[in-house]
């Protein structure tokens, strides 16, 4: 397992690398939106979403000098909670880094004392993600033909 990493809040300069990871075919396969997102659309969205005072959070996992993963917590007013999304560069799968990224992101988020539900929507065929979230205290609270819906309550 690689222990030479940092997990920190995203910076504006991380936008391009987050975009690259998000558009990787493996991530797109399991994403709620499998469409390719153009960089010219992503950059203003990323800046507005995480750097304009909205109640959203993005953390990145860095193995210097490169961002290799991200974890987003986006406020969903309709659900009075956060929707979580995580992605890791496939070159770094199987090293325990997804667990470290999710766990540390949840800890950083919890320090903000938001006390809101955190919800994840995971395709049933995405077994590694289901196991990752369950290992981080997410519980399945409902399902449909395609997805499991998991919930984590902040402390």
Offer a quick outline of the entry.
This protein has helices at 15-22, 25-30, 39-51, 97-110, 127-135; strands at 6-9, 57-63, 66-76, 81-88, 117-123, 139-143, 147-153. The chain has 155 residues and is α+β, with helices and mostly antiparallel strands.
Overview of the molecule:
The chain is α+β, with helices and mostly antiparallel strands and 155 residues long. The chain has a single domain, classed as Aminopeptidase. Helices cover 32% and strands 32% of the residues. It is built from five helices and seven strands. The protein has helices spanning 15-22, 25-30, 39-51, 97-110, 127-135; strands at residues 6-9, 57-63, 66-76, 81-88, 117-123, 139-143, 147-153. It has a seven-stranded mixed β-sheet, sandwiched between helices. Strand 6 and strand 7 form a beta hairpin. The longest helix is centred in the C-terminal third of the chain and has 14 residues, at 97-110. The chain is globular. The relative contact order is 0.16. InterPro entries: Acyl_CoA_acyltransferase, GNAT_dom. This is N-acetyltransferase domain-containing protein. GO terms for molecular function: acyltransferase activity, transferring groups other than amino-acyl groups.
Secondary-structure map with pairings?
Blueprint: E1 6-9, H1 15-22, H2 25-30, H3 39-51, E2 57-63, E3 66-76, E4 81-88, H4 97-110, E5 117-123, H5 127-135, E6 139-143, E7 147-153
Parallel strand pairs: 4-5
Antiparallel strand pairs: 1-2, 2-3, 3-4, 5-7, 6-7
Domain N-acetyltransferase: 5-155
Protein name: N-acetyltransferase domain-containing protein
GO molecular function, one term: acyltransferase activity, transferring groups other than amino-acyl groups
